[in-house]
Fold this sequence. Notes:
- Helix 4 packs across helix 6 (206-223), helix 6 (206-223) runs parallel beside helix 7 (235-246) and helix 7 (235-246) runs parallel beside helix 9.
- The chain is globular.
- It has helices at 71-80, 99-112, 135-140, 158-168, 194-199, 206-223, 235-246, 257-261, 283-294, 330-339, 346-361, and strands at residues 3-10, 16-21, 24-30, 40-43, 48-51, 53-58, 83-88, 116-119, 147-148, 174-177, 190-191, 203-204, 227-229, 251-255, 300-301, 378-388, 407-417, 420-424, 427-428.
- Strand 17 and strand 18 (420-424) form a beta hairpin.
- It has eleven helices and 19 strands.
- The strands form four sheets. Strands 1, 2, 3, 4, 5, 16, 17, 18 and 19 form a nine-stranded mixed beta sheet that branches.
- By secondary structure, it is α/β, with parallel strands linked by helices.
- The chain has two domains: 3-48 and 373-396 and 406-433, Urease, subunit C, domain 1 (Roll), CATH 2.30.40.10; 51-360, Metal-dependent hydrolases (TIM Barrel), CATH 3.20.20.
- 28% of the residues lie in helices and 22% in strands.
Amino acid sequence: MSFVLRNVRPLGGAEVDIRISAGRISAIELSGTIATDGAIEVLGAGMVLLPGLVDLHTHLREPGREDAETVETGTRAAALGGFTAVHAMANTDPVADTAGVVEQVWRLGRASGWCDVRPVGAVTLGLAGSQLAELGAMADSPAAVRVFSDDGKCVWDAVIMRRALEYVKAFDGVIAQHAQEPRLTEGAQMNEGAMSALLGLTGWPAVAEEAIIARDVLLTEHVRSRLHVCHVSTAGSVEIIRWAKSRGIDVTAEVTPHHLLLTDDLVATYDPRYKVNPPLRTAADVEALRDGLADGTIDAVATDHAPHPIEDKDCEWADASPGMLGLEDALAVVNTTMVESGRLDWAGVAARMSVAPAGIGRLSEHGRPIAVGEPANLVIFDPSASYVVDPNAGASRSRNNPYAGRELTGRVRATFLHGDPTVLDGELVARSNV
Ligand code: DOR
């Protein structure tokens, strides 16, 4: 099946027509000049065309917590958000710490067909932090794992972290660290600051994140390996990563959409939708994160899409599970916080949400230029359409959407995966129709 995308603006540039056939971009011509020739036309006047988005940090919850999300429901949400590839985090049940579990997740992703699923392997057995998982076997499995993380838990033991960094060099892997010093965050409920003092909630100090990042960049330099920092949330973390990059240390970092938009004053509502690890921080941190993303200190936006069933969120703040949905609204949040504020242009958005994350995850078919011969993994985005977020309208199995009731600007109109649409007119395309 072939498609002609009419009047789309690649990376926000001039309008063109694009033909997609046999899974690839087969022609790019001036608007109105490509003959339809039996292809299906997709109208994109005024819309931006980007390479399909790549998420480095998605919790798909399968196996083990299918009441919160499955590979099928999570990848539907991803397609609606414009993603063509996601990295599935390892904190499942059982933990993805063996070649068998990562292969299972990879096969479920292949069967779903909504986006490519690359499993993340755990760094330590059972995320317990004391013994390395079988990293090499996961790398050699059909899932070809390249990103390893104990996300949700920090690899706090410096010797284990050093060994993991040394080990993954053999297969060009990367350790993605959830930077949280465990002793400094015991019982923590929110960001440590004026608001936690006012609310009487135990605080999570910025230094708990920054101390681990500082240690890890030095370890990475020492063993000449590759480090990725998950969900950076403080101004001080941005400073340390900027310093590490200036020294030539091979470190990359991500920021979540929610840390680009939301602040810790929301915790005064005691609404557990705003409970997340790392916690929402201050307006000054948000500014520093936006600046860090704009100047490339932070390489990528990653959602940390963390679905939780209603009984784990509709309860007292202290008992609630941390985490927020993110896939379906990520591009609108980046549009609202980064593009409309003039900090990033569309080439910059493509770099942070597709090219860089594909590079960090070593995905060869994603984050590619929009050019003839390239794989047709693409998203068409209407940057001016605004909408009020309705948590019940989403494709995720869970409803813990932190943007519920907010107006965001920009909507995904179409997503193409390997040349076939997963989303058209903002709706999922039945896979049997493709
Ligand atoms: O808020 C969070 N939720 N942060 C994490 O690191 C883990 C995630 C989860 O798995 O729910």
